[in-house]
Structure formats: C-alpha cells, structure tokens
Amino acid sequence: MGSNPFSICFDQYYLNGSLMLSFLQANAKRNFDETFEVHVKMTPDLRRTDLKLSGFVRLPHGFGKTYRVAVFAEGAAAEEARDAGADIVGGPELVENIRTGQVKVDFDKCISTPSMMEHVKKLSRNLKQLMPDTKKGTLTNDISRSVKEAKEQSVLFKKDKTAIVHVGLGKVSFSEDALRENVGAFVNALLLAKPAGLKKSSKYAGYVDSFHVCSTMGPSFPISVQSLSMAADRYNRLQLR
C-alpha cells in the first residue's frame, strides 16, 4: 500500500503540506465530469446483520449535483417548504399519487412533517431508503431548515451485504483542497456512525479494513488509515474556527 504514488502523496499532504490529487485527476480521461468515489471495506465484524451502519455527511464543498427535494406537508408547513425551494410539495393526495404510480419517485431526498407520517408510511416500498427519518433529520416540523439543508449537498451512506461502503464525494474537476475537505468530512461522519456493538474502542481498529478512492472510470488508489485519521482531525479543527 505504501508504494502506491497516490497513497504516498495523500499522506504527504498531512506530513509535508502537499496533496497531489492530480494522480487521480490525470486518469479521468472520459468526456464527462467523473465522480470522485470512495470505497471503504469494513472489518469482518461488520458483516454481522445485527450491526447496522448508515449515516449522512454534509459535504463542505458539495457533490456537484442539484438535488430534487420532495416534502409531505399541509397548510403553513407546505407553504414553508415551497418558500424554502422544495421541488415537490403535497399532502395525502401526493402520497396516493405516488402509491398508484401517477407520480414518479424522481426526487433525491424526501422530508415529512410528523403529522403526515400516518399517510407517508404507506409508501415504504416506493420510497425505500428515502423514507423520512428523525435520525436523518428528514422527519421534522422545522421544514424550512430541513429543505435548505437537503438542497445543500449532503450524502447518505450505508454498508452493503459485504460490509463495504460506497459513496461519491464530489467531482474530479473539484480542486484538491475541496476534495480533501470532503474526504475529511466523510471520514468524520463514518467514525460518528460506528456501531456501538463493536468491541474495540479505538478509532479505526476493528472498524475500517481498507480505504480506496477512484474516479468513475479510473483506477483505484489506497489511502492509509493514518491519513484518514488526520483528515478527520483536520476537518474537526476547521469546524471549531
């Protein structure tokens, strides 16, 4: 792992002040702006079905995509959602139209007021991971704030059946600093999402097995756990300023 040029340069950003994401960017030769992807292999313990791993991260420099937001609300809350920039707003009628297929689930994020959940719960098969949830901040009465945050670039992540987390953290065209800070924010969020059921208490021991970055169509590069820890620590220092 240490002999990989990208890994070495990522490490040197924190040790010597120089990060060379140009290695990855130089390999993104497609005729579209490729996504900067992260693939995290978690330790074997995370294959246990009783250990859930999911969360969301608000990227400091966004994802490079405009999100469509749907809000289930009525009355003043519905007006608040529209004023905040929600793309789709409605009450029980919207729920029924989605359930019957008259309205497609072509939005990226979904928010609901608590009073609407009696209706929205009928859409569990339609919405799947988009179902409003208090832990995600999408089941709330603070509609204006939630819509604005949803329109900002937050990204959901969760482990798959093989205990790997796949997530996009921006575009290859982003600056080196922007991508580095997005990585730091994600690593911090990943640490906060660490299941309480894991036995080991130190940061990444018994949690992260390996961490790779790549562009959509490019080769994959490993990043050391030491650099990940430094990235998360630097992100936290920036938040305190």
UniProtKB/TrEMBL annotation:
Coiled coil, from the record: none
Sample GO molecular function, one term: structural constituent of ribosome
Gene Ontology biological process terms from the UniProt entry: translation
Record keywords, A-Z: Ribonucleoprotein, Ribosomal protein
SUPFAM superfamilies associated with the record: Ribosomal protein L1
Domain of life: Eukaryota
GO cellular component, one term: large ribosomal subunit
Keyword Transmembrane helix: no
Ribonucleoprotein among keywords: yes
Family: Belongs to the universal ribosomal protein uL1 family.
Protein name: CL1
Organism: Sesamum angolense
High-level lineage: Eukaryota, Viridiplantae, Streptophyta, Embryophyta, Tracheophyta
